[in-house]
# Entry
Amino acid sequence: MIDRDRLWGRLFELREIGKREGSSVTRLSFTKEERATRERLASYMRAGLSKREDAVGNLFGCREGRDPEAPTVLVGSHMDSVHNGGNFDGPLRLLAGIEALQTMHE
# Structure
C-alpha cells in the first residue's frame, strides 16, 4: 500500500528547495535549486532502482521487471518550476512514480 505520509513528507521536503514567500517555489532549470532537487530525488530512488543522469541533467530511475518481454511503464515529469510556481507542479508526478516503485519493492 502506498505510504501517504512518506509521499506527502517528501513533497514538502522538496518544497523547501527553492521555497519563496508564502507557498510558492522557484527552481529554474540549470540552477543550484534544480541540482539540489535532482540530488534529493536520486536519494529517494534507493528502492531497487538503477539511476542514471544524461548530459543535460535528466534523471532516470529504472526497475527491471521479471518478464523482459513485458511492456515498459514510464512515469515522468519535470523537477524545475516557473517563477513562484506551485508545490505540486512537476515533483508530485515524479514522487508518485518513485513511491509506486518503492511500494512494489517493499
User: Anything to note?
Assistant: The chain has a mean pLDDT of 88. Residues 4-105 form one domain.
